[in-house]
Design goal:
The chain has about 550 residues and is α/β, with parallel strands linked by helices. Helix content is about 35%, strand content about 10%.
C-alpha cells in the first residue's frame, strides 16, 4: 500500500510561519528515510587471509570479490561443426565413385546406388534405381556417363539396351573391352527377344520355366498391344498367343522365334474347328508380327540371335539409332525387343554382377499397359538381380504420351516414376513446376532452385536427404570431349574419333610404381600423382610409351 502524507497550513498564517512549517515537514520526511552510506563506507574490509578468497562463509566471514575467468572452449572437429554458422552436411561418405562437388558442403560427392542401398543409417536408400529428369542441354547425359564410366573401376558394368541417338557408341568404343551391337543399316546382327537366357541356379526347374514363359508372353503381348495403339487384346487373342507360343516351343525344341510364332498363328487362323475360337484371336497378333517377318523391321528380331551378349564386357551398347529414323512406332517396337533380349541375359542373380541399365528415352518403355507392367516388374526385381535402372526423361510431360488423360496407363506410368527413390533433378522449364510438386512431391523452394541450375548442376535425392551437386566441376578434358552431345553427333560423324584407352594408357594414368605401395599390384597413391599437362582447350593425347614405362605423369 502506498503511504500518502497530507499537510495542512492555516490560511491566516504569515509568510514566515508557512516557511517554518515547510522546513519542519521536510525535516520529518528526511528523518523517515534510511541513512545513505558512501561507496567507501560500503567497501569490504581487507581479507584476514591473503589471496583471491577470504576465510569463507563457513567461518562466518565473507568472500572476496575476484574477477571471473572463463577458460576457452575446447572440442573436437566433429562437435565444433555443429556450432552455427559452421554448419555443413556430412554427405554420403567416400564410398563409390566421385560424381561431382557438393556445393552446400564444399566437398567431393561420392555416390553408388548399391552402397546407398546397403547403408543402414538414415542416409540409406531402399532402391537402386535412379530417375534422371531435366530439360535439354542441362547436362543429364554427360552426368550419367560420368557416373557409370567412373563406376567401371569399382567393378560395376554398364548396359544400354537401346541407344536411339548413337551417343553411347563413342563411349563404349573408348572403353577398353567395350562392346557395341549395331542393328540395321545393312548389318547382319539379329536379336531374338524370346531367347531363354542363362539358367538361374537359385531357382528350381519349375520356377525357372515359369519365369521364362512369363517373360516371353509379356514380350509378345507388349509388342502386339503397342502396335494396336489404344486397343487392348481380348481374352481370345490372349489364348491364341499362349497356344501359339506353346506350339512353337514344342516344334523348335524350346527355341521359339517371332517367325515361328507368326507361322503358328497362321495355322491357328486356319483351324476353324477349335473349341475356343482361336482362329478369331490369331488374326490381329499375326498382322502385327508380319511387320517383323516381312515388313520394315524384317531381318532384326524374327529369327535366332546372331550375336551374343558379352558377360565380361565393362560396357555393352545396342545401337538402334538407324532404326529410330523409321518412325516412332518402329522405335518403340525396337526398344521393347532389344530390352527383352538384354533382360533375358542379365537377369541372373547367381552371376553376382552389378550392372547399370541405362534407359534412354525411358517413356518409350511405358507406351502400353503390357509394357508398363513389364517395366514395373523389372524395376521391382532390380535389387534381386543387382541392377540399377537409370530412367532418363526430359520432362514429366513425356509421360502424357502414355494413354489418355486419367487412364490406367498414365496413372501407372506416373506411379512408377514417382516410386523411384533416387532422383537427379537438373534444370527444368517453368512449365514443370506444378508437375514436380504434384507428381514427385518436391518442396516449392527446391522447384524454384531447379529452374536456376546451371549446366551440369542437379538436385540429388538419396533416401531422406537432398544434395546440390555440380558434376562438371570434376570433369576432365577427355571426359568433356567424349561426353559432349550438344551437336548430336554419332561415332560415324566424327572426323577424328577419340582414341580408345588401352591397358598401357590406363597404366600411365594409374602407375604401378608409385612411392607408396604394398605390392606390385597395390599402388596406394598412384591416382594422386599430378595429371599430364594437356593444355586448357585440347583433348589429351595418348600417353607416350616413355611415360608409361617410367610412371611419369
Amino acid at each position: 500500500m502506498t503511504r500518502r502524507i497530507l499537510t495542512f497550513t492555516p490560511g491566516d498564517a504569515s509568510r514566515k510561519v508557512r516557511a517554518q512549517l515547510s522546513r519542519e515537514i521536510a525535516a520529518a520526511l528526511r528523518a523517515e528515510q534510511p541513512t545513505r552510506s558512501s561507496r567507501r563506507e560500503r567497501a569490504l574490509p581487507e581479507p584476514a587471509v591473503p589471496g583471491p578468497f577470504g576465510p569463507g562463509l563457513a567461518a562466518g566471514g565473507y568472500w572476496n570479490l575476484a574477477g571471473l575467468h572463463v577458460p576457452p572452449h575446447e572440442a573436437t572437429s566433429q562437435h565444433i561443426a555443429g556450432i552455427y554458422p559452421f554448419v555443413a552436411d556430412a554427405g554420403l561418405g567416400h564410398r563409390g565413385p566421385i560424381v561431382g562437388v557438393d556445393l552446400n558442403a564444399d566437398a567431393l560427392w561420392h555416390f553408388s546406388p548399391w552402397e546407398a542401398y546397403i547403408d543402414q543409417s538414415d542416409r540409406g536408400s531402399f532402391s537402386t534405381n535412379i530417375l534422371v529428369l531435366g530439360a535439354y542441354r542441362s547436362g543429364k547425359s554427360a552426368t550419367v556417363k560420368t557416373l557409370v564410366t567412373r563406376s567401371i573401376a569399382f567393378g560395376h558394368q554398364v548396359v544400354v539396351p537401346s541407344d536411339p541417338k548413337g551417343e553411347w557408341v563413342a563411349v563404349a568404343e573408348a572403353m577398353p573391352g567395350g562392346r557395341v551391337i549395331r542393328l540395321g543399316n545393312g548389318t547382319s546382327a539379329r536379336l531374338n527377344p524370346l531367347d531363354r537366357g542363362p539358367r538361374r541356379s537359385d531357382a528350381s526347374d519349375e520356377q525357372h520355366e515359369q519365369m521364362v514363359k512369363q517373360r516371353r508372353i509379356g514380350t509378345l503381348i507388349a509388342l502386339v498391344e503397342m502396335a494396336l495403339g489404344k486397343q487392348r487384346l481380348t481374352a481370345v487373342e490372349h489364348a491364341a498367343i499362349h497356344d501359339a507360343l506353346d506350339r512353337c516351343v514344342a516344334r523348335t525344341s524350346d527355341h521359339p522365334t517371332l517367325r515361328g510364332i507368326y507361322m503358328e498363328l497362321g495355322y491357328l487362323a486356319g483351324e476353324t474347328a477349335t473349341a475356343f475360337r482361336a482362329a478369331e484371336g490369331a488374326v490381329q497378333p499375326r498382322f502385327v508380327l508380319r511387320r517383323f517377318v516381312e515388313g520394315d523391321l524384317a531381318g532384326l528380331f524374327e529369327d535366332e540371335s546372331t550375336v551374343e551378349f558379352d558377360q565380361d564386357a565393362p560396357m555393352v551398347v545396342t545401337d538402334t539409332s538407324e532404326l529410330f529414323a523409321r518412325g516412332e512406332l518402329a522405335a518403340q517396337l525396337t526398344q521393347v525387343c532389344s530390352t527383352a533380349w538384354i533382360q533375358a541375359v542379365i537377369s541372373d542373380r547367381a552371376a553376382r554382377r552389378t550392372r547399370y541399365v541405362v534407359r534412354e528415352e525411358g517413356w518409350r518403355d511405358m507406351t502400353s499397359l503390357a509394357s508398363l507392367q513389364m517395366f514395373q516388374q523389372w524395376l521391382k526385381l532390380s535389387r534381386h538381380y543387382g541392377i540399377s535402372n537409370i530412367v532418363i526423361l526430359h520432362k514429366m510431360g513425356d509421360l502424357d504420351a502414355v494413354g489418355d488423360a486419367d487412364s490406367l496407363e498414365r496413372s501407372l506410368a506416373y506411379s512408377i516414376v514417382g516410386d523411384i527413390e533416387n532422383k537427379f533433378i537438373f534444370r527444368v522449364n517453368h512449365q514443370e513446376q506444378s508437375a514436380l510438386q504434384e507428381r514427385l512431391n518436391l518442396p516449392a523452394p527446391h522447384v524454384a532452385m531447379a529452374r536456376q541450375l546451371r549446366k551440369g548442376e542437379f538436385l540429388a535425392y538419396v533416401g531422406q536427404y537432398s544434395y546440390l551437386v555440380d558434376c562438371f566441376a570434376t570433369s576432365t578434358p577427355w571426359e568433356q570431349a567424349l561426353f559432349d552431345t550438344d551437336d548430336a553427333v554419332t561415332a560415324n560423324d566424327r572426323d577424328t574419333p577419340l582414341p580408345a584407352l588401352t591397358d598401357t594408357d590406363l597404366d600411365a594414368f594409374w602407375p604401378t610404381d608409385a612411392p607408396f605401395m604394398t605390392s606390385d599390384s597395390e599402388a596406394v597413391d598412384g591416382w594422386l600423382a599430378p595429371a599430364p599437362d594437356v593444355g586448357s582447350t585440347e583433348v589429351p593425347d595418348r600417353p607416350t610409351a616413355a611415360a608409361s614405362e617410367g610412371g611419369q605423369q
